[in-house]
Amino acid sequence: MQLCMQEEDLHGDQEGLTTFTNKMLVRSYFDASTFNNTFQQIQSILTNDLEDYRRIMRYRFVFLGNSGVGKSSAIKCMLNNPPIIKAVPEVGPPSIHPQTSLTTVDDNTQSKGDWYKAYVQFVDVETAASSGSQGSSLLGSLNPLNVFSSQTKGVADPAKIFAELVDMPGDKNFRRMLPPTLLPSKNAVYCILYDLTQSFENIKAHIEAELVFLHANVARTYPKTVGGDAPRVAFCLLGTKRDEMREKSELSVVSFLNKLVTALGDVFFRLRGEDTAGLICIGNFASSARDWAVTSTKGDRGPKTFRDLVQFLGIVASQLYPNTPTNLLPSSRDTASHMTYMLGDEVVENAVEKTSHLHPVQQRLRKGLITLLTGLGREQKVRWLMSESEMRKLVSEHLGIDAETQFGAMCINYVIREIAVRGIISVVPNAIIEPKYLPRAKDDVAGPNKHPRDGIIILDPQRMYLFYSLFAAPGVLPKGGSAASPTKPQDTKASHFDPSSLARVSTTYQRGVMQQDVLEVLFSKFTAYFNKDIKLVSEFLAVAGLGISLKSEATLICPGHIQSRISKCLTEYIPYLVSLHGDGLGRRYRLNAATPAFFARLQTVLIPFAIAPSREPNFLKLMWSDASLLVLDKMRLKWGIFGSRRVKDAVMQAAGTPVRGILKLEGDLLFIAITAKGGADSSTMMNVCRNIMDAIHTEIGILCSRFQRGVKAQFQELTITGYAAKRQRMEEGIETVLGRHEVPLTEIVAQRNLVGSFANGREIEEAIHQLRPEFCDDEE
Ligand SMILES: Nc1nc2c(ncn2[C@@H]2O[C@H](COP(=O)(O)OP(=O)(O)OP(=O)(O)O)[C@@H](O)[C@H]2O)c(=O)[nH]1
Ligand SMILES: [Mg+2]
Question: Which CATH code, of 3.40.50.300, 3.20.20.100, 3.40.309.10, 3.40.640.10, is assigned to 61-109+160-322?
Answer without folding.
Answer: 3.40.50.300
